[in-house]
Amino acid sequence: MFPMPAPMRAALDAARRAALAGEVPVGAVVMRGGEIIATAANAPRTLHDPTAHAEMLAIRAAAQVLGSDRLEACDLWVTLEPCAMCAGAIAHARIARLYYGAEDAKGGAVAHGPRFFAQPTCHHRPEVYAGIGEEEAARLLREFFAARR
Description:
Blueprint lengths: L5 H15 L6 E6 L2 E7 L2 H4 L6 H13 L7 E7 L3 H10 L3 E6 L24 E4 L3 H13 L3
């Protein structure tokens, strides 16, 4: 077994913070040049904003740090397969590489559903690496939802 990459560890830590706040446990990290420049956790309920997914918040924060809407030299690490909204933001931000943990058969849009990056209308396709930290990310989600049933 390989050690957990530091960016995914940071994203998982953010996901745990989201769960403690009553949010679905998803965390995201934007990396540039081997350095974390933004970290975010899901916060739609906290912020009263349906677009406040971890990926969206991390992308917004990274854009502010860099002073640009283009994150071409950046990688996004997220604990759950991005939805269609987040996949669209990833493409518009020109994220170079996407790393994600757990698959999302219901709401995911990368390997499931619309397979956003495979569509001919998608103008930018990041390199995609799935399954990194998948077991831990999926466990966080299962435990979160089990506690609410």
